[in-house]
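Page 37, top half.
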Amino acid sequence: MTQQRPDFTAFRERLLTRQRMFGTFLKLPTTQVVEILGAIGYDFVVIDQEHAALGRDITDLMIFAARASNIAPVVRIAEFSEANILSALDSGAMGIMVPHVSTVEKAQAIARSCRYTGGSRGFAGLTRASNWGSIGAVDHMSLQDSRVACIAMIEDFEAVDRTGDIARVDGIDALFIGRGDLTAAYRGDPQAGAKVAETSRRIAAAAGEADIPLMMLPTSKADFNFAAELGASAMLVSSDHGFIRSAAAAALKEYSA
């Protein structure tokens, strides 16, 4: 018998308590992939507005599909603005991931945008997030503040020395180490892998000192073990693009041999 996973609304609680969770990035503008991942048993998906052609309309539908499939929808917005965060949250996102958080001031602004109490999130009573007004305004705001996860991406050199301060910003719930951008910044340096590994250790140490959860994207089982050793508990495994490419390549190799 397949073990039933927790309700998608528990995503932030599970993140904060460092429960092992698995997710993936979504770049294809479709709801069917979300349903498939939910049926398989993934815990969360990150709808990637930063690196994919995912506008507000399809993001809304993908969030709907995730919630219906009991998989927590997180939205990586293309760039920080209160409007971008509000759009995702009103559609029912259970988490917001923001790229290139390199200053405390930006982290503070992000945290405010994700919260009602002590924050600046705009109120709307008839949204998917409020279950279309079926709960009162006060309860809605309280539930959203307790359930929405606010995730900052550390992926710039200038952010590394500030990681501890960013991690301690009230309202930032987790850090994601953006090793792709950190690696790209070395511009083909043959030692890039080793340098990014050391940088990741520094970021992880700062996150540990601040007692904040860590998220990473492992690229292999060995890399998964490395991420786990650093303390990462929420793991992003590939992407829908990656899954299609790897499965298609494996099938072609097998059947054309």
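Page 37, bottom half:
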Amino acid sequence: MQGLGDEVLRHVLRIQVRLFACHARLLANTDGEALHDLRIALRQLRSLLRPFTAIAGCSDLQQRAAELGRLTGPLRDLEVLQGYLQQQGLSTAAQSRQPLLQDGYAQLLASAALAQLLQALDVWPQRWREALGTGQRHQLHKLIRQRLRKDHRHLAQALRDPAHDRHRLRLLVKRLRYATEAYPQQSGLSKQALVALKQAQSTLGDWHDHWQWLLRAEAEPDLQPCVVAWHAAMRRAEQQADLAVQQLAATFARR
């Protein structure tokens, strides 16, 4: 095995090491960024493997990563909210959510999803080598190009839709951004386009955070003091997101 197949293997092994480190940091409760870093590693793993769903072992590992990503999403949302409340001096509201966070971390560490992902990572290298040994390594470049073209096409279609859904657009932007970072040479995107993707992801993420917080405030009375400011911030985020999306659409139109 050589070339791209070897490169993918090394990349997955690097991600595996990072996931083990994040696991250890969560166990030791050393810092507040362990969960965030774990989720980034999961997204990178999924992006790396998405083109290879037809190759033995890749679909299973990607699904394990997706399952853990879904499990950790609400916990990360709570983590971000708790940090915001602390920064705003709303210590009572922040402290009341700390036990929920700690319970969430404990449930994550004891979860079947985490254990199954780590197990799948252990057996994946051998399955990858076996698959490439059957001649599938010759398909890798083609599979990557097909996946990137599909991601690009889906995002371009959404950008052309004047009634685009910000939730879906945010997911499509993230998907293409991480796919491009996984395979920069195959993506064909310029640095300008990648910058535009990152900016759109950031502004859409800001809007999404405030949208989620306002939903929570409907069921959590101690968040009511934040509602007026959150509505104003969400309106600003909407404007910034729409501008970033327009710039991204213009960048894509020049391709």
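Margin note: The mean pLDDT is 92.
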